[in-house]
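Example for tutorial group B:
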């Protein structure tokens, strides 16, 4: 089937509306069978799959936030998702089943907290969360799962490796690694080696997961990310990211000989300017490597640099290596004064700029094609098909009037849709994080509408209420300071002014109940009263 023939169906007659994107996205994972098939997760518990290279997305809702994915190396339709249980699909995410706990044993679901969060209990299930998954490429019945279990009685969380030899039906624990989280599991296609990169260190099994030993590392700093590539000569490539701790170096460490020798490459790129003290966290937050050509890897980086003029500057984006980490080059770069020239901007980048979504949370490289990489951050997913030469937007498209409409990747809270009672074509959507959007064509496309809104109010909008024709529309904001903004007339909403002063900064009123709605009562043209 040609990819342009694939149409992801809407959900039982419903059509997706909105501009697309807007929330944090994580763990982009690309199919080894087809680089146009990929899956991501978001901070609002949804998972999204594309089968046409980001042209359209379908939501897969498993009720919980997933932390990792794995594609079956033999069956292209089978995908695993790890959360506070292990899920699997055999039809590209159209339907899912819980394979652990469950499988051949009984399962119980408990709802905890005021949000009724599901917690699963079952035979052989240790509890906790699945943070890493790997499928044996020589035998796809063999699954490895890294599980992080919260300690009891004040004990620290610990991670363990489990193995199933019947596609998740039954499990046995093979190693208790002690670290709180297992970031990466990787099974060699050419030997009996299995790698585990954890928050507390690196582990290796030489007999396909039966016995494990610790691999010496060069620093005691916490490991926050890792990736492994296999070259077939026994000299596996390891990319390991650490976070700053005391005076120890942070950033990326690379080993090209199976963990024997390591070199610190920091954020990869070497600049002709001097780095300054860290003000925005670690210099590297994400790493992605190509399975079939592990010499190619991508990093999500943030650099604080001192320019020759003496002014400090923050550069963020993606750097790439094609020689196993020896040399690096920028392939996506932004700073407060310059947007990337090789990025086709989506609506969010046009509205806020590339600094707002920050540097990548996740990088997913196609296992069979080093030129394809998906990048996720605080508000977008973008992708490259030419090794970082150019980057494409995948969250939205634009109509001829510049209105944005979603490709199905909508990932943030919508507080409501508000209709103009005097014009059936006009409506507003109020969001978390991406504020207010207006449509003049019954929701077919949307325009961002925050011009003139005070900076402290731009994040979250809760409610709108139009007044009489030509009157004032008042909106309430409930994040980082609340108050009222007004615009006249209602159908314009292109510029806003502060109508009622906001409360003190968020830290001063966060324990009080914040307003979630407002209404308007027509008095005369150009005026309104809030209640």
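The residue assignment follows.
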């Amino acid at each position: 089937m040609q990819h342009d023939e694939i149409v992801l169906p809407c959900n039982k007659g419903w059509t997706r509306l909105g501009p697309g994107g807007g929330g944090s996205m994580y763990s982009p994972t690309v199919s080894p069978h087809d680089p146009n098939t990929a899956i991501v997760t978001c901070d609002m518990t949804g998972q999204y799959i594309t089968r046409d290279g980001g042209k359209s997305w379908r939501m897969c809702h498993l009720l919980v936030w997933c932390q990792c994915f794995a594609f079956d190396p033999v069956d292209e339709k089978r995908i695993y998702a790890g959360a506070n249980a292990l899920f699997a699909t055999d039809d590209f995410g159209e339907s899912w089943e819980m394979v652990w706990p469950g499988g051949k044993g009984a399962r119980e679901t408990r709802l905890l907290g005021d949000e009724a969060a599901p917690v699963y209990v079952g035979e052989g299930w240790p509890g906790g969360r699945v943070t890493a998954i790997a499928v044996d490429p020589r035998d796809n019945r063999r699954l490895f799962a890294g599980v992080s279990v919260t300690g009891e009685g004040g004990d620290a969380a610990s991670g363990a490796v489990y193995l199933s030899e019947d596609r998740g039906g039954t499990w046995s624990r093979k190693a208790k690694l002690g670290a709180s989280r297992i970031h990466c599991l990787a099974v060699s296609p050419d030997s009996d080696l299995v790698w585990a990169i954890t928050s507390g260190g690196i582990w290796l099994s030489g007999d396909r997961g039966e016995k494990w030993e610790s691999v010496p590392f060069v620093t005691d700093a916490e490991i926050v990310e890792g990736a492994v590539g296999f070259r077939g000569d026994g000299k596996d490539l390891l990319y390991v990211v650490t976070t700053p701790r005391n005076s120890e170096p942070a950033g990326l460490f690379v080993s090209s000989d199976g963990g024997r020798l390591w070199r610190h490459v920091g954020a990869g790129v070497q600049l002709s300017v001097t780095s300054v003290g860290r003000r925005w966290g670690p210099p590297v937050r994400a790493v992605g490597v190509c399975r079939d050509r592990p010499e190619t890897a991508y990093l999500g980086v943030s650099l604080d640099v001192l320019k020759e003029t003496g002014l400090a500057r923050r550069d963020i984006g993606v750097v790439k290596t094609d020689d196993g980490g020896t040399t690096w080059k920028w392939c996506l770069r932004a700073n407060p004064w310059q947007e990337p020239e090789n990025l086709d901007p989506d609506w969010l980048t046009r509205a806020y700029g590339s600094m707002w979504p920050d540097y990548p949370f996740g990088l997913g490289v196609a296992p069979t094609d080093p030129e394809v990489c998906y990048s996720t951050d605080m508000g977008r997913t973008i992708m490259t098909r030419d090794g970082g030469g150019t980057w494409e937007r995948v969250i939205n498209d634009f109509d001829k009037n510049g209105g944005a409409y979603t490709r199905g990747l909508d990932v943030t809270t919508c507080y409501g849709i508000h209709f103009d009672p005097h014009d059936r074509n006009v409506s507003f959507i109020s969001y978390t994080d991406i504020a207010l959007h207006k449509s003049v064509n019954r929701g077919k496309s949307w325009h961002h509408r925050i011009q003139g809104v005070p900076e402290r109010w731009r994040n979250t909008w809760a409610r709108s209420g139009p007044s009489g024709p030509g009157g004032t529309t008042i909106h309430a904001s409930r994040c980082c300071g609340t108050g009222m903004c007004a615009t006249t007339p209602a159908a314009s909403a292109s510029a806003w002014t502060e109508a009622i002063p906001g409360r003190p900064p968020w830290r001063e009123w966060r324990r009080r109940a914040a307003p979630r709605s407002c209404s308007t009562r027509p008095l005369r043209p150009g005026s309104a009263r809030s209640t």
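The CA atoms of residues 54 and 460 lie 27 Å apart. Compare this with the pattern of hydrophobic and polar residues in the output above.
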